[in-house]
Write a structure and sequence with these properties.
about 300 residues; alpha/beta; 10 helices; about 15% strand; globular
């Protein structure tokens, strides 16, 4: 036997066995966590997580599921990384030109949904970049339906709302428009962006709103538009813009959650981790802490 070939085969075998062992261990942990179940420790409020929170730390579907279950979360806004990793969806969605490729991606999306649903986790929205062609836009909505999503989130823009609303209507799904510290929902008069289509909703970031308005409460926005909100992003910020560990800022997260519980609003409230992770901690651990903050608020 050629020594180099034998060494390569040995290394390949070890790599395969190592990967298989890691995958088996991950599957066992998911099974154990799923058996315990996310439960309902949030008083009927659908608290979840935007997987952007795990950026740079977790990028795969199973690892993300493990992290959600560790935090006891049964809801998720799924970003593109885990979707691409699990389904093989290319970064250039406009390159998906064949029916066979499209069907293969959607089949994997259905498997993705089953993996999460079997563990008690609902994928309520996804956020992957839209392509430029009509076919690519259709594919984004088909992926949403295959994942069991209520809709798709994207950055707030009247131009994109006008472009995408007909597709949302065609597929019977929602567009959730996400605000930053500017271009947030209008409070003193009807928000014209919602007039684009009944399928246009708000993906309302309460922390960005608090910072962008220099400390105004997001609660009046919730009271006015609660029937046009697909989901919230929760974060703790100061009026001058800083992101802080929860409880150190001024965003009224607890008041928002308690109002949701009181009014029995059914849209999810997603943890979005944007503060600097403390030394010695991890994104997974910090999301767990944020989830505990929500539980205490709703106890």
């Amino acid at each position: 036997m050629d020594v180099r070939n034998g060494l390569f085969e040995s290394m390949s075998r070890r790599s395969f066995l190592g990967a298989a062992s890691a995958a088996f261990a991950a599957s066992r942990e998911i099974s154990a966590l799923a058996a315990a179940g996310p439960g309902d420790g949030f008083g009927g409020v659908r608290v979840g997580c935007n997987t952007y929170s795990y950026r740079g730390e977790i990028g795969d579907a199973r690892g993300t599921l493990q992290a959600l279950l560790k935090a006891g979360l049964a809801e998720v806004e799924m970003k593109e990384g885990p979707i691409r990793e699990f389904t093989g969806l290319p970064a250039d969605v406009d390159s998906v030109n064949s029916d066979e490729t499209r069907e293969a991606i959607l089949k994997k999306c259905a498997e993705f949904r089953e993996l999460y649903n079997d563990a008690g986790v609902n994928i309520h929205v996804h956020k992957i970049p839209f392509g430029k062609t009509d076919a690519a836009i259709d594919l984004a909505f088909e992926i949403a339906r295959a994942l069991g999503c209520e809709g798709i989130t994207l950055e707030r823009s009247e131009e994109t709302a006008l472009r995408l609303a007909p597709f949302a209507e065609k597929h019977g799904l929602k567009l959730g428009l996400h605000n930053h510290t500017t271009n947030y929902p209008i409070l003193d008069r009807p928000d014209p962006i919602l007039d684009v289509s009944p399928n246009v909703y708000l993906n309302f970031d309460v922390g960005h709103y608090f910072a962008g308005t220099k400390g105004k409460s997001p609660i009046p926005v919730l009271e006015k538009y609660h029937d046009r909100i697909i989901s919230l992003h929760l974060k703790d910020r100061t009026a001058d813009g800083g992101n802080l560990p929860w409880g150190r800022g001024k965003t009224p997260i607890k008041e928002v959650l308690r109002l949701m519980k009181q009014e029995k609003w059914t849209f999810p409230a997603d943890i979005e981790l944007e503060y600097k992770i403390p030394e010695g901690s991890t994104a997974v651990a910090e999301v767990v802490r944020c989830a505990e903050y929500c539980r205490e608020a709703l106890a």
